[in-house]
């Protein structure tokens, strides 16, 4: 890895994405993790471009009054890099980043920006995917995460964002693997999920199809017989933990949770919200904006948790993922909704015919935002209201700008779904202009 000289810089602000930025002595911008506005810091440079540098703070010369000790001092940069700031500061910066995203597109939000939080800063995540670290001296496995900005790993004992049930199960599995003397080269990742009741499922992704999966499963079940899991071969040519072949499985591999008193089942690897209490508040807020008596079309619908909780009795759910639609259809059937809900397996841009002028439209797209074909169809058909929940205010602001010839902002609200991280959710209600 190429080595660069460290730089000292005074940081001025936090930018979209979560890094702090300052200007070095040579006039180049310096983007860094581990620093706060107003601090003078020393930065280990990991990336050098013609007009900016990127790196990580190694020494804080003048700390900010907003700085606090991180709960995970060795690994917070890998998992939750905003552990270094007071929670009140985090709330402020998230509101400021929403405002900045819209200002960059010359959009002034009509009301002061508020970011909802339930105040729970840690142990809120119901899904964690760990990597592994193998210590060649002790010949022991540890859980690990990738070091931010590098391909290297950092071994950890636990992660403070994980639910307590996930933390307990992760330690059990690592202990069993060490007892079986499983090497790090055989393993890819460990995915663990928990529900609100503390029930857990797990998936161990391995790189070798020949591994003794039945032995691993039996050993884990002997310690935790009530917890279900599976060992999965994942093609090592893919960096992602994809299911190539299930090698050994328990009998029951789904979890269930209720969202606004509606029960949902989901698979370990399936999409489901990470922070349910804050998500429920977002749904309550969105429900107020459903236009009574209109059909509801929920695009980018995942397993259907938005539409099935707030969408009423004339609902169309559109989702690209086959696995998500499978889970969605099971939820529709178990809720007795098959006569009132239509499930469509398609990319939203390939199903724009469902966007009609008489419908209330719900969109919760990926970080890339709305597809241009969806934008064009909305402008063409002019549904009275669009309920737009976004995990990326920057692309949401861009989309609102594209829709601005027809739509105006009636309401907006931020949500802190992921405390101690830079991630932000933002709701915008768009109504056709008079």
**Beta-strand share of residues:** 25-35%
Count of beta strands: 22
The CATH architecture of the largest domain can be named as 3-Layer(aba) Sandwich
CATH class of the largest domain: Alpha Beta
What is the residue-mean pLDDT, rounded to a whole number?
Answer: 95
Q: Give helix % range.
A: 10-25%
- Globular, elongated, flat, extended or rod-shaped: what is the shape? globular
What do we call the CATH topology of the largest domain? Rossmann fold
Oligomerization category of the chains in this entry: single chain
Taking strands numbered 1, 2, ... along the chain, how are they ordered across the largest sheet?
6-21-22-20-19-16-17-18
- Supply the helix-strand structural class: alpha/beta
What's the CATH superfamily of the largest domain, by name?
A: Vaccinia Virus protein VP39
Largest sheet: 8 strands, mixed
The gyration radius over C-alpha positions equals 23 Å
Count of alpha and pi helical runs: 9
As for the number of domains, it is 3
Q: What is the end-to-end distance?
A: 59 Å
| Unreliable residue stretches | none
């Amino acid at each position: 890895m190429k080595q660069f000289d460290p730089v000292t810089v005074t940081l001025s602000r936090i930018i979209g994405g979560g890094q702090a930025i300052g200007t070095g002595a040579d006039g180049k911008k310096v983007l860094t993790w581990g620093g706060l506005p107003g601090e003078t810091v020393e930065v280990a440079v990991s990336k050098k471009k013609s007009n900016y540098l990127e790196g990580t703070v190694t020494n804080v010369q003048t700390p900010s009054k907003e700085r606090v000790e991180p709960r995970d001092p060795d690994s917070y940069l890998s998992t939750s890099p905003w552990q270094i700031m007071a929670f009140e500061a985090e709330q402020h910066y998230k509101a400021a980043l929403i405002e900045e995203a819209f200002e960059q597109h010359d959009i002034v939000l009509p009301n002061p920006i508020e970011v909802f939080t339930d105040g729970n800063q840690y142990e809120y995540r119901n899904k964690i995917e760990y990597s592994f670290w193998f210590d060649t001296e002790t010949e022991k496995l540890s859980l690990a995460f990738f070091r931010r900005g590098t391909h290297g790993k950092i071994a950890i004992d636990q992660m403070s964002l994980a639910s307590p049930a996930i933390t307990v199960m992760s330690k059990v599995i690592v202990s069993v693997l060490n007892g079986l003397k499983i090497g790090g080269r055989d393993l890819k990742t460990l995915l663990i999920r928990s529900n609100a009741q503390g029930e857990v499922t797990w998936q161990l992704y391995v790189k070798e199809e020949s591994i003794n999966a039945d032995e691993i499963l039996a050993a884990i079940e002997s310690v935790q017989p009530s917890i279900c899991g599976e060992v999965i071969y994942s093609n090592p040519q893919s960096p992602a933990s994809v299911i190539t072949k299930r090698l050994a499985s328990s009998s029951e591999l789904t979890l269930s949770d209720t969202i606004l008193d509606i029960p949902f089942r989901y698979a370990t690897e399936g999409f489901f919200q990470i922070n349910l209490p804050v998500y429920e508040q977002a749904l309550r807020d969105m429900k107020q904006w459903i236009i009574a008596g209109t059909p509801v079309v929920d695009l980018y619908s995942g397993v259907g948790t938005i539409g099935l909780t707030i969408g009423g009795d004339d609902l169309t759910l559109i989702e690209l993922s086959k696995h998500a639609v499978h889970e969605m259809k099971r939820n529709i059937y178990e809720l007795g909704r098959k006569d009132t809900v239509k499930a469509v397996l398609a990319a939203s841009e390939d199903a724009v015919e469902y966007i009609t002028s008489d419908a209330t439209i719900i969109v919760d797209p990926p970080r890339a935002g709305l597809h241009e074909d969806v934008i064009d169809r909305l402008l063409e058909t002019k549904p009275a209201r669009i309920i737009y929940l976004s995990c990326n205010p920057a692309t949401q602001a861009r989309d609102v700008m594209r829709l601005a010839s027809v739509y105006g902002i009636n309401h907006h609200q931020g949500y802190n779904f992921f405390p101690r991280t830079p991630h932000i959710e933002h709701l915008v209600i768009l109504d056709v202009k008079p």
